[in-house]
Design a protein that fits this description.
5-stranded mixed sheet; 25% strand; elongated; alpha+beta; 4-stranded mixed sheet; 2 domains; 39% helix; Rossmann fold
Length: 337
């Protein structure tokens, strides 16, 4: 019996060691990645068995710029904004798909979760470009971002030069890293005169040598998002005929506007919010919300808006319609009491 117990404990110890190694227990053996060295003092990051930082790895989506789309007849300016056709871009020239794939491969090789452009377009093939609630048309980019919900857009702009003496082509490109929630560019990288057997090979060659620099920029952005929260826009409006005035006193004893302020004090990242509009029919804010749930999983702006709407129904006794569109534009409409 003693020998059997000893054998059991020995095998258990071996399995634990193997499991720790497979899960990255040996930190020294891991290659340098995006999340290396990141830290945070909140409970979800410190809790045992929850690697919140790795669970919150930002998802990447590679998109051609509007300038590149126009070059291939896949974008045009309309009174309602830019009309984009990503499918046409991919099909017009076989090199286009190869270029996007080449860039995606570099990020996959560096362990970034990826939202593939072509696969996301296939998901959208049978979807309507019209929002059912508001009957508002959405362009291809809005639909892509709502479907894939990437954390970072890698926007590609490029051109080629042909040397008539050597009959060789060289590549010039700029890659911009964009927060899709705010549409702000937080980093760029550029190269000129890159040559290769093909455009996709030229991209691979250049990006491979620049990934350390790119990882540094993304690491800084990612760390800031984790610690300071994700920026969102919030609008609360009153529907015609609802008999609600946001400056009136609610059943809670405060005005509706004051109640919203108090809610944001406790449900934004360290009370980080700023009022932009305060009228009897509309409240609007910019705010920073947490990026993670208590268990370390992703927390979306839609979830945050849904919780706010639920609290308004329960505490204020109002009817609320959620008209949220996009990744970070939360719009709640009070339709009555």
């Amino acid at each position: 019996m003693y020998k059997m117990k000893k054998l059991f404990y020995t095998l258990s110890a071996i399995l634990v060691c193997v499991a720790m190694s497979a899960c990255g227990g040996d930190k020294s053996s891991k290659s340098k990645g995006l999340t290396d060295g990141l830290d945070d003092d909140s409970d979800e990051y410190m809790a045992e068995n929850v690697n919140a930082i790795d669970q919150a790895m930002p998802e990447i989506m590679v998109l051609p710029s509007d300038g590149v789309l126009q070059k291939y007849g896949a974008a045009k300016q309309t009174p309602d904004g830019v009309q984009r056709d990503y499918q046409k871009y991919l099909l017009t020239d076989k090199n286009n798909k190869a270029i996007v794939s080449a860039i995606q491969e570099q990020f996959v090789a560096n362990n970034y979760p990826l939202n593939d452009l072509e696969q996301t377009l296939k998901q959208l093939a049978n979807k309507s470009a019209t929002d059912e609630a508001d009957d508002l048309a959405k362009d291809a980019k809005t639909l892509l971002l709502e479907t894939a919900s990437p954390d970072i857009i890698v926007e590609l702009d490029y051109s080629t030069n042909f040397d008539r003496k050597t009959y060789n082509s060289t590549l010039n490109y700029t890659i911009s890293f964009i927060d899709p929630y705010t549409n702000k560019v937080f980093a760029t990288t550029s190269e000129e005169g890159i040559d290769g057997a093909s455009l996709s090979d030229a991209f691979k060659k250049s990006l491979s040598g620049n990934m350390d620099h790119i990882n540094g920029d993304l690491n800084k952005y990612f760390s800031t998002t984790l610690t300071k929260g994700r920026e969102i826009n919030l609008r609360i409006t009153v529907a015609n005929g609802s008999n609600v005035n946001l400056q009136d006193e609610s059943i809670e004893g405060d005005t509706y506007a004051d109640w919203v302020d108090d809610y944001l004090d406790h449900h934004t990242k360290k009370g980080s919010f700023k009022m932009k509009t305060n009228t009897k029919n509309e409240l609007s804010y910019t705010a920073r919300i947490p990026t993670l749930n208590a268990d370390g999983t992703q927390y979306s702006s839609y979830q945050w808006g849904r919780e706010l709407a639920k609290a308004m129904r329960n505490d204020l006794g109002v009817k609320v319609s959620n008209r949220t569109q996009g990744l970070a534009n939360i719009h709640l409409v009070i339709t009555g009491l």
